[in-house]
């Protein structure tokens, strides 16, 4: 039976993203094109591969079995095709990365221009989102994550700053009106600008000083989606709406300009920086191999 390779990729993309719309967004195809490809594959195989409802898409038992075998097989096909790249003077192809919005903003800007200049035959596609996805299932070559969200069977390479901090700040006018906190618990009496992950989790604000760790469940009127709407919280803080807790590097321009005033700095939480992670197979696609080598040579 001769099956179109593109139809198999479409099925993997939809199953991995758990939906045609998300599969299209992550793969760069159209939802209608993915739907037609999966329908064509199901017709050719004579079995239903996906359960479809108005709210969700999930693999059938036959679809699960196919996915188990397809992942390694498609990886081998891509690796085999990429061997041709070894005969080129310069690596070529497309590198697709899935990264948090914070990494797209704070880590990649200092790396991407230099990498593209060094490898003019490589195209780089960056998908920035804060939902945790299987990078291979959605058609990406690698991702950027922090160590607490790394999968154990992946290779992780440090990328960007080795350490970062969460900063706490507010507009000077706000602090003049409401006072300057001396201890993280004082934030319970302040209006705080909170963030929620796509999963629905609203994390507490964490602090550390001399080995003492504190988690404070702050309160406030404004809640934003972390990543996608973070700049709204920053603008609100600058306007005097409350206290913000965010990556120090994200707030740095406003701290340096005086639009925001740092508070509780001895308590700012320090944590390890992000990692580029990718499958631990022996043969990497040439664009990814070039990116890994570039990261390691410039770190």
What does this structure look like?
It is a single chain. With 299 residues, the chain is an alpha/beta fold. It has 3 domains: 5-82, Arc Repressor Mutant, subunit A (Orthogonal Bundle), CATH 1.10.10; 88-156 and 275-298, D-Maltodextrin-Binding Protein, domain 2; 163-272, Periplasmic binding protein-like II (D-Maltodextrin-Binding Protein, domain 2), CATH 3.40.190. The protein is built from 10 helices and 15 strands. The longest helix is centred in the first third of the chain and has 22 residues, at 61-82.
In CATH, the homologous superfamily of the largest domain goes by the name Periplasmic binding protein-like II
Within the CATH hierarchy, at the fold level, what is the topology of the largest domain?
A: D-Maltodextrin-Binding Protein, domain 2
Strand coverage percent: 15-25%
Structural class: alpha/beta
Count of strand segments? 15
Domain count: 3
Order of helices and strands: HHHEEHEHHEEEEHEEEEHEHEEEH
CATH architecture of the largest domain: 3-Layer(aba) Sandwich
Query: How does the overall form come out from the CA principal axes?
Result: globular
Largest sheet: 6 strands, mixed
What is the mean pLDDT? 87
Gyration radius from CA atoms, angstroms: 23 Å
**Which regions are unreliable across 5 or more consecutive residues at pLDDT < 50?**
none
What helical percentage do the residues reach?
Answer: 25-40%
| Distance between the amino and carboxyl termini | 49 Å
**What is the name of the CATH class of the largest domain?**
Alpha Beta
What is the assembly state of the chains in this entry? single chain
> Tally the helices: what do you get?
10
